[in-house]
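This protein record is not my work; I was only asked to verify it. The record follows directly below this note.
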Amino acid sequence: MKLFAYGTLMRRGRLEALVDRRLPDPVPAVLEGYRRYDTGRGYPVILEEPGASVEGLLWDLGDADLRFLDHYEGFDEDPPVYYRRTVRVRVGDREEWAEAYVGNAALFRDLAR
């Protein structure tokens, strides 16, 4: 399972503490069709925006790791802070499927104005 990270989960120490294990080195990746916003709360969010792109890292994770990350990203809150989406990212000259935490547009709509 791949995870496209663009914010706090780009930090190895943070991510490894959350999944409680050492991870292989990530690779740079680009996600098309989204824009990264600073929330002013100490973490960023990405929202869909045609023509935009976000640079980040692609981590190789296990399925069980995502349960810890879902909780960290507020996926289980009501309403959710982020939704986990399957996206296609560009890694060099190839594309790969990955999971990404996309902001709940209803909570962050003011950022996109």
Remarks:
- The first helix runs from residue 12 to 19.
- The beta strands are 2-5, 27-38, 44-60, 82-91, 94-103.
- The two ends are 34 Å apart (CA to CA).
- Residues 27 and 58 are 5 Å apart (CA to CA).
